[in-house]
Structure to design on (123 residues):
């Protein structure tokens, strides 16, 4: 089973940047998808960005051109670089993973989750 631990959240002003990291352990397959989700107060959890084992990436329309997902295979870490942050990016961010390559943005497909980390964008 996968273990996922997020880091890098915090408070940033609008227009600023943050980099989230998700340390992943427990791989038992070469096939995987690691997805960042977020949940804002009073809203449903939504998919933000995903990367799979062959490096294919997907993004929600709301973050395209501002967020970049990447992976460091040696360190078994997935990063989410978030630039030009807006107040509406404020949420708890979760990384989730499972052993398939399709990168769905539906939380029900993922068996393994991190504990979540707060990102707040405010002046």
């Amino acid at each position: 089973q996968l273990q996922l631990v997020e880091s890098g959240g915090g408070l940033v002003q609008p227009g600023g940047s943050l980099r989230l990291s998700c340390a992943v352990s427990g791989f038992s397959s070469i096939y995987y998808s690691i997805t960042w989700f977020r949940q804002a107060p009073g809203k449903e959890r939504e998919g933000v960005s995903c990367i799979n084992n062959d490096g294919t990436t997907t993004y929600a329309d709301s973050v395209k051109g501002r967020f970049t997902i990447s992976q460091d295979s040696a360190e078994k870490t997935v990063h989410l670089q978030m630039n030009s942050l807006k107040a509406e990016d404020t949420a708890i961010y979760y990384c989730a993973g499972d052993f398939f390559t399709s990168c769905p943005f539906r939380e029900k497909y993922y068996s393994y989750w991190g504990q979540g980390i707060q990102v707040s964008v405010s002046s």
In short: The mean pLDDT is 95. The chain has no helices and eleven strands. The two ends are 40 Å apart (CA to CA).
